[in-house]
Amino acid sequence: MSILTELARIWLTRSVRPFSFTSAYDSSLDLCEEQNLGLYLHIPFCRTLCGFCPYCKVPYQEELAKAYLDALLKEIDLVGGSLPSRRQVTSLYFGGGSPALFAAEIGRIVKKLREYFEISEEIGIELHPEDVNEETLKLLKSAGVTRISIGVQSFQESGLQALGRTLERPEQIFDALARVPFETVSMDFIFALPGQSFEELRRDIDMAFSHGANHVAIYPFIDFTDTTRGFPKMPERQKRKLLDQITAYCAGQGYIRDSIWTFSKPGTPKYSSMTRDNFLGFGCSATTLLRNQFKINTFSIPAYLRRIGEGKLPTALTLKFTLRQRMVYYLFWTAYTTVVDAGAFEAFFGRKLNRCYGFELRMACLLGLAKKDGDSYRMTPRGAYYYHHFENYYTLSYIDQMWHLMRNEAFPERLLIR
């Protein structure tokens, strides 16, 4: 456990109290006061399992996938049926796994969700490169999908080899995107791979933007407990140099930095499934974030099917936030967008940002990590690098610990994150 994240938690929450998750079953979902509510739906099936991917997934099996789809629709009924009326939400995102393995059923799932929710903005979905073909894209578009994110990871042979991936015909991806356009086409890339140069990353960025993408995500390789890395870790100094070069190059090309590791063409709506004030999660491993609580569903598909079959939500662990804990969670993910808006913070919490964290914000500005911009605080490139650095500690100290436990126990009794 990193002492850095523990000290940061104690300081920012003004308490030694850890984040305490319990297994006590709680079917309540009080959505009355929740604003800017999003939806997330997890499809945990892949054709093959990539060793570098930390997310909840299993090899595709037709019968298991059919059973999972039925349970997923029942879970939507369980949650939606508890609402007093049809609820407006901002967005819907499908993640995985490889959600496009359910391409023929995405329309059915969206239709079921629309019985209970009015989706006012985007519908997004993650795609494996193998799924980017004209037939699949047409199915998704007819289901209402407006934004897609393609997990390319690298167009370079050296990068693909390091990750154990292949990409034999990238032109198939480019042709399909030209024939079936979407509002946002994002491509994901991993940096800090062995021997990786800025020139290789620049070629990836240029190839993406010149062949259908209007948004790219470039994030560092992170060592999770349940992933494999068959190469030495890149030195931190070299990693920082690459990040600075990526940032400077994208700025020089006129791309907009709309989060810590995403860049887009001007006027492009961003692809982001996490930066929501609140969201409801459906499916294995999906999380639900509300004003006062955080819930995570079981990672076990058999346990998920059994729980839904009993007419119960598949919640495995629940955290009841203290006010300061919720503030820290809010600020962490808001800072991921590189801008923290004091007015939005006050609207959400009913408290002024400067009164709660004025000292920390002043120090961030003095250290060159952020700049005050009217009623907002905007992260500098220096701040973005240190956020990258801290996010790595956060991921390994918090997310990795939770996911490792959930992979080994369908319904753990308790989880303390200090």
TrEMBL record:
PROSITE patterns xref list: RADICAL_SAM
Pfam families associated with the record: Radical_SAM (PF04055)
Span of domain Radical SAM core: 31-257
SUPFAM superfamilies per the UniProt record, alphabetical: Radical SAM enzymes
Superkingdom field: Bacteria
Keyword match Iron: yes
Keywords assigned by UniProt, alphabetized: Iron, Iron-sulfur, Metal-binding, S-adenosyl-L-methionine
Protein name: Heme chaperone HemW
Organism (species): Yanshouia hominis
